[in-house]
Description:
single chain, alpha+beta, Bifunctional nuclease domain, seven-stranded mixed β-sheet
Amino acid sequence: MTKKELHIIALSASESSPENYALILEEPQSKVRVPIIIGAFEAQSIAVYFERMKIARPLTYDLFKNTIESLNATVKEVVIHNLIDNVFHAWLIIENNNKEAIKIDARASDAIAIGIRFDAPVFIYDFVLDEASVAESEKRLSLLRGSLAHYSDEALEDLLEDLLRKEDYESAARIRDMIEKRRSRQR
């Protein structure tokens, strides 16, 4: 199975579901985006890392990092390997000092929160990328409707192009309407 690297491009609160957040990942070549709905704890931990906030005591994911490092191991990569019932499944690939790869089953949000602390790349299998960005797009768009307000105009334009390329005209119409609404406010 082939896999593609994803980059984290946004983390935003979901207005439609206040206890959840949307972690937006993007495949750089195709600009296909994959939204992962995560909890507040995971979102906070990811935000703390990216904002380089100094905290008095280690968070759970920092504790995992310290433990892995104390065992002379490192996280080599995160692999999102499946999507079942709208839940992403991932592996945390850890390499020990003997260069042996250890595959640990994890929620995607947990694997990413740990992986970023090692600057480990995030990968997704092609079939999961296709399913998450096409078959699930309408469902995910409805979950993210509130957080789309946090997207930049350029990001919305890119999302619109992606949806049109995938012939998801209903979702594209919603994005187009949001873009037009923003433009009319700017006049």
